[in-house]
Amino acid sequence: MLRGLPAVTEVSSGILSLAGLTADHLRLIDFARLPHAALRRTNGGLEGEVLVQIEFHLTPGSEGWETLEFLASFVRDQARGGEPLQLRPFALPPTAGAARQLGHTLRFHLDLFFPDSDGSLEPILAKVGQIGQSLKSAIAVYQSAFISER
């Protein structure tokens, strides 16, 4: 669904069990893409908690900025309605050795916390599908906002 929005590229996703994850794990590079602030508030993952993370890149420019603003509004509305969903930026350090990374690593994450996983993917995928349908509806409702007069 995200690929249908202007300027969205390189979409990937994953599901990770947060059970047993502690705040100490967050210092390790293997956990760099996780939502640190949210997980530190609970000292790690909750019992039975799963994180669905969707990462995407936006091409720089006004279309990317407008898509980000639309997604921020959508995520805010979902969270206000009770969905444990957040949107956040992710980037690597400005340099790696002598190589400049600044301006090349910015990505965005949609993080969906699924608190009561029983080990089955079906309810998780159903929830992702439900939110995807809501996003599809929002895109249809606001389609004219994406048509710019430039």
Write structural notes for this entry.
The structure is a single chain. The chain is of the alpha+beta class. 30% of the residues lie in helices and 25% in strands. The protein is built from three helices and six strands. It has helices spanning 36-41, 62-80, 122-141; strands spanning 8-17, 50-58, 85-90, 95-96, 99-100, 107-114. Strands 1-2-6-3 form a four-stranded antiparallel beta sheet, with helices on one face. Strands 4-5 form a two-stranded antiparallel ribbon. A hairpin with a 2-residue loop joins β4 and β5. The longest helix is centred in the last third of the chain and has 20 residues, at 122-141. The radius of gyration is 17 Å and the shape is flat. The mean pLDDT is 92.
Question: Biggest β-sheet: count, sense, barrel?
Answer: 4 strands, antiparallel
Number of strands: 6
Number of helices: 3
Beta-strand percent range: 15-25%
Distance between the termini: 25 Å
Derived structural class: alpha+beta
Brief rundown of the structure:
The chain has 150 residues and is α+β, with helices and mostly antiparallel strands. The chain has helices at residues 36-41, 62-80, 122-141, and strands spanning 8-17, 50-58, 85-90, 95-96, 99-100, 107-114. A four-stranded antiparallel sheet has the order 1-2-6-3, with helices on one face.
